[in-house]
Amino acid sequence: MSRRRGRPRKKTTPSKSPTIGSTPNSGGDVIPTEEESPTPQKSPINDEILTEATPDLKEENPQQTYAEAVTGIADKDKLQLIPATEVNGMLVAKLTKEDVIESKDYWNSTLVCCILGANPPIEVVKGFINRVWKSYPMDDISVLKEGQFLVTFRKEEDMKEIVKRRYYFFDNKPMYIQQWKPGMKVITEELTDIPIWIQLPDLDVKY
């Protein structure tokens, strides 16, 4: 078989492709693109200039001081200064008629309970009274002194109905009750008709 004559084939050399993300320049150096370029560092000088140029922003809801919160309240209520009165060399506050609440009607439905021989806690007394007089609406039960308690009813007629029976028994101890007024003192030592329970063992039935 005869050979073909002609020019030999030219050997091809693979071309070197540039790295992705870089662009070759005329001198063969690789120039970094925007993606590869380093992040520029912030200059502290620029930050100071920006801070000085920007005014301070105020808070949207600044916290008020106590003085700011109460400003104008006295003007709204029209408060007036009433000078004190000197009594025996001492300054005493002066009350007007409007300052005194008329309370005489409040005590018309109040009675005092005197538990003889005991001084139970107020919570125990409240439980006992609310159970015994549960059908009579009450406003308040409070302590007057040791062994004595005040009971205020909503209706005066309810109080009068209860005081008809002068004595009740609290844990087998007599409880004396009477209508109460401010300034009244109940002296239990002067009571002469106190009911008491006695027990006589082996007493004949006929007695």
From TrEMBL:
For region Disordered, the annotated ranges are 1-63
Output the superkingdom of the source species: Eukaryota
Domain (DUF4283) spans 105-185
Pfam family example for this protein? DUF4283
Q: Where is the composition biased (Basic residues)?
A: 1-13
InterPro entries in alphabetical order: DUF4283
Polar residues compositional bias, start-end: 16-26
Q: What is the name listed in the Swiss-Prot or TrEMBL entry for this protein?
A: DUF4283 domain-containing protein
